[in-house]
Amino acid sequence: MSVLREVTHIDNVRLGDDRASVVILDQTQLPNRTVYVTLRTAEALYQAIFTLQVRGAPAIGICAAYGLAALARQSTAGSRAEFDRVLKAQSDYLVSSRPTAVNLSWAARRMCALLDAHPDWPVDRMQDALEQEARAIHQEDIDMCRAISEHGLSLLREGDGILTHCNAGPLATSRYGTALGPILLGTERGMRFRVFADETRPLLQGARLTAYELQKAGVDVTLICDNMASIVMKNGWINACFVGCDRVAANGDTANKIGTSGVAILAKYYGIPFYVLGPTSTIDGNCPTGADIRIEERDPEEIKTKFYAEPMALPEVTCYNPAFDVTDHSLITAIITEKGICRPPYSETLPTFFRERK
Ligand SMILES: CSC[C@@H](O)[C@@H](O)C(=O)COP(=O)(O)O
C-alpha cells in the first residue's frame, strides 16, 4: 500500500470480527503510538466517545452505529419488545456522551428507526439488519467524503496555501476526510499545496492529528499555534481556509471546533475565502440558527494540566472551556457537501442539500 493510501484508508472505526464489538484507533495516543482498542460494552463506547479516543463528527456517528449493532448482537432479551427497549436506552446513553456533533444522534436515530420500521421481525433477523444498517452508514460516509473531496478540489489550484483548524481528515471521518479531503485527493493526483495547520488548543487535534496525517501523506504542512493564523494570512500565504463542521444550522451558522469562528473573522478581514466542508448528515434542518446549537463544555483541566509536565495555571484559577464555537453564516463563503457547493443565502440554498432522513 502506498504511504498516501495508508493515510486515506486508515482503519479508524470498524465492527469487530466477532460482530459483537467495535474496534477503534485510539486517537488520544497519536501521534506517538498506534493503538487499537476493542469496545464491548455501552459504558466502554460512551467513554471512548467522551474522552475523544474516537472523535470527529462523522466518526462518532459511525462508532455509535457499529456500537448499537454490536450491543444488539450481544442481546439476551427474551422478546422483541425487551430487545427494542434495551437498545433504545443504550442509544440514548451513547447520544448523551457528546451534545454538539449532530452526526452522533443522527446515526443513533437511524439505527433505532429500523426497530420501529419492522416490529414483527424476530430478534436474529433484526440483529442482522442493524449490522447491515451500520455498515451502510459507514459506506455512505466513505462515498460522501470522496464526493466532498472532489467538489472541494475544484476550488483549489496548484500551489495554493490552505489554512485548516482542528482535524477533519481520515481519522475524523471515513477515508479522505472532509476539510482535508481535497488536499489528499489533489496530492494523490500529483498536485502540490502548502497547508498551515492550527494546533487547536486545548486538545491539539491540529498538532497531534492533522499535522500527523498530512506529514505522513507527503503534504507540505506547517504547524502553527492558533494565534499565528493572522500573521500567515497577512503574509499572503493563505489562499483559502478549509474547515470541517459538527452541526450546520438551517441558516448556515456552523458549529465546529473552538477557534473556528476566529479564523473565519480573520479570513473576512484579509479577504480570504472561508469554506466549511461536511456531509449533509451534519446539516441539522431542525436547528434554525447557531443560537440553538448546544455547545459542549469540557473539564478545565484540559486547559491547565492535560498535556503538561507541570500545571500551567494555579489550581484555583477559573477556566472556561467550550469545545466548539459557532461561525456566523455571513462569514462562510460556501458550504461544500457531497451534493455540491452550496453558496449563500443559505436559508434558501441549504434546504435542497438536506439529507433525506430515514
Ligand atoms: C470531519 S470532522 C469535523 C469536526 O468534527 C471537527 O472539525 C471537530 O470540530 C472535531 O471536534 P472533536 O472535539 O475533536 O471531536
CATH architecture of the largest domain: 3-Layer(aba) Sandwich
Rough shape?
A: globular
Report the radius of gyration as a whole number of Å: 20 Å
- How many runs of DSSP E, i.e. beta strands? 14
Bound molecules: 5-S-methyl-1-O-phosphono-5-thio-D-ribulose
Ranges with pLDDT <50 over ≥5 residues? none
CATH class of the largest domain: Alpha Beta
Sequence of strands across the biggest β-sheet: 6-5-4-7-10-13-14
Q: Main beta sheet: strand number and arrangement? A: 7 strands, mixed
| SS field, number of helical segments | 12
Proportion of residues in helical segments: 25-40%
Word description of this protein:
The longest helix is centred in the middle third of the chain and has 31 residues. Helix 3 runs parallel beside helix 5. The radius of gyration is 20 Å and the shape is globular. The protein has two domains: 138 residues, Four Helix Bundle (Hemerythrin (Met), subunit A) (Up-down Bundle); 209 residues, Translation initiation factor eif-2b, domain 2 (Rossmann fold). The chain is α/β, with parallel strands linked by helices and 358 residues long. The protein contains twelve helices and 14 strands. A seven-stranded mixed sheet has the order 6-5-4-7-10-13-14. A four-stranded mixed sheet has the order 11-8-9-12, covered by helices on one side. The mean pLDDT is 96. The structure holds 5-S-methyl-1-O-phosphono-5-thio-D-ribulose (MRU). The site of 5-S-methyl-1-O-phosphono-5-thio-D-ribulose has 18 residues, from helix 3 and strand 9. 5-S-methyl-1-O-phosphono-5-thio-D-ribulose binds next to helix 3 and strand 9.
